[in-house]
């Protein structure tokens, strides 16, 4: 471990030496490569410890082009050229690719993918926590098709569990951790068709508090879905769009608070001041709802009242790690996706950089010896950058030449489709007349759409800690929670964890004959 730190220090020194333009000297590149090789050789001794803790960082919509562009942005924010910078996730020793398709969709959505990387089962688009036998929006296909998540497996094993997101806590990604719902948009009963409510289907907000008793940490947005219809919001009392949405009249926050009175240490918070006043040593359960809907983009966040993802993650880990049996934490950088859908690459990339900060903070307060950390995305986007830009070109800048067709400049960042398509007098808009580096600039797109779409290519999976080497090639997305459960000896992956003497052992276990026969039947 110490040699790993020394190598990392040398690599950082090499990275910083770019400012001295040493990259013109072959010795620079040879030295860096040799240190990287030495680091790789240290990984030949695999970490086969049992993972006491599991952390999954999910960058919603964080395709590989987004990772690369965020890396450059991170470097440029610190005065560097950018390309040579390392994201925190770049430092993870193991990388794989994840195939993101849904069972009924070549290009996936965030609900079906969440079911895959949380529940271990691929599913239809638009559904959460149910198998592909469930049909979107058809309430009567829910019962009997529920699938459980790794968050539940961890809770049942005695671990503490948490959810932290920059979206609503009942949005697609987090909801697959606890809900079983045939429609991702059933945030509260106010968004459900009357027949679905009458048939006994539950809204997602309700399931957050009822399905898995006592989730230890819940932080994000989505306040309005917890309160009765037309009840004003504590932060925006005069804004009707933020009023409560529940038709059943229930106040889920009040119900949680009352139920938790029996717990010696629980707290509900709704702003940054309250969050930062929490002493993690004195609180075991926390519910933090910081906005009626999604949290604001990090670039637009009020740093006095709105917590950052990093701040939420740090407190979450400090609360969860008190459990001697360890914890499972799901962290979503959810607004990367929203920025891309709106064609606002600057918002999306700053969200990705903030999630990387959170990854770094988590690494400082956990250990690779007993904590498996995985960073991945649910799907990609129709986002890319190119145009033969020179080294150090601002990631939001122009390509160095004009189009040889319409003789106009273009930005390096472009979308395949989306709201940035604009024609003026029958010609492409001249971006040099616009503030193309503005926070809300919508990058040009090839096809006009009100909202840009997801991309269908594989996404990266970065892993470190116990058994991280099992994420090593091209995998189906639903493989991810099986690996994490195996590393932690939870869920269906426990038989290999106990040796005959009772000591923990992570030697591979042969599948049972029954399992082999079942698999054979499914494949035939």
UniProtKB/TrEMBL annotation:
Protein name: Alkaline phosphatase
GO cellular component entries: plasma membrane; side of membrane
Localization in the cell: Cell membrane
Organism for this UniProt entry: Salmo trutta
Pfam families to which the protein is assigned, alphabetical: Alk_phosphatase
Binding site for Mg(2+): 60, 171, 173, 332
Cofactors that this protein relies on: Mg(2+); Zn(2+)
Residues spanning the membrane: none
EC numbers for this chain: 3.1.3.1
Catalytically driven reaction(s): a phosphate monoester + H2O = an alcohol + phosphate
Enzyme class, UniProt record, top EC level: hydrolase
């Amino acid at each position: 471990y110490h040699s790993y730190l020394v190598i990392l220090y040398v690599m950082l020194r090499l990275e910083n030496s770019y400012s001295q333009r040493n990259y013109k000297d072959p010795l620079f590149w040879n030295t860096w490569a040799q240190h990287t090789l030495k680091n790789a050789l240290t990984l030949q001794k695999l970490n086969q410890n049992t993972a006491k803790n599991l952390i999954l960082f999910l960058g919603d919509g964080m395709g590989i082009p987004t990772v690369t562009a965020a890396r450059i942005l991170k470097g440029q924010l610190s005065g560097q050229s950018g390309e040579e910078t390392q994201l925190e996730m770049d430092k993870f020793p193991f990388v794989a690719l994840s195939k993101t398709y849904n069972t009924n969709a070549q290009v996936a959505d965030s609900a079906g993918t969440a079911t895959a990387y949380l529940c271990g089962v691929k599913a239809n688009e638009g559904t959460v926590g149910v198998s592909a036998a469930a049909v979107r929006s058809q309430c009567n296909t829910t019962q009997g098709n529920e699938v459980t998540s790794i968050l539940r497996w961890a809770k049942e094993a005695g671990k503490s569990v948490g959810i932290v997101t920059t979206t609503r806590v009942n949005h697609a990604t987090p909801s697959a951790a606890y809900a079983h719902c045939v429609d991702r948009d059933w945030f509260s009963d106010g968004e459900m068709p009357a027949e679905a409510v009458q048939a006994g289907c539950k809204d997602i907000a309700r399931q957050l508090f009822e399905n898995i008793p006592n989730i230890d940490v819940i932080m994000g947005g989505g306040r309005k879905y917890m309160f009765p219809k037309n009840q004003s919001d504590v932060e925006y009392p005069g804004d009707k769009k933020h009023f409560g949405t529940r038709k059943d009249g229930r106040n889920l926050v009040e119900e949680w608070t009352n139920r938790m009175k029996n717990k010696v240490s629980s707290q509900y918070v709704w702003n940054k001041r309250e969050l930062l006043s929490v002493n993690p040593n004195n609180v075991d359960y926390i519910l933090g709802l910081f906005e009626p809907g999604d949290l604001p983009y990090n670039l637009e966040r009020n740093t006095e009242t709105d917590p950052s993802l990093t701040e939420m993650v740090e407190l979450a880990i400090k609360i969860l790690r008190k459990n001697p049996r360890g914890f499972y934490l799901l962290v979503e950088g959810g607004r990367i996706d929203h920025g891309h859908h709106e064609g606002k690459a600057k918002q999306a990339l700053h969200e990705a950089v903030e999630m990387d900060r959170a990854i770094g903070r988590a690494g400082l307060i956990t250990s690779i010896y007993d904590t498996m950390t995985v960073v991945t995305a649910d799907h990609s986007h129709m986002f890319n950058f190119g145009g033969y830009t020179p080294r150090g070109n601002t990631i939001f800048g122009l390509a160095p030449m004009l189009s040889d067709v319409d003789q106009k400049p273009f930005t390096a960042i472009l979308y395949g489709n989306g709201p940035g398509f604009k024609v003026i007098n029958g010609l492409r808009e001249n971006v040099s007349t616009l503030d193309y580096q503005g926070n809300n600039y919508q990058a040009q797109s090839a096809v006009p759409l009100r909202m840009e779409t997801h991309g269908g290519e594989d996404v990266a999976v970065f892993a470190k800690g116990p058994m991280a080497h099992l994420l090593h090639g091209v995998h189906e997305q639903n493989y991810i929670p099986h690996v994490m459960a195996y590393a932690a000896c939870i869920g269906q992956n426990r038989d290999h964890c106990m040796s005959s003497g009772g000591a923990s052992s992570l030697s591979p276990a042969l599948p049972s004959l029954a399992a082999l026969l079942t698999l054979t039947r499914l494949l035939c």
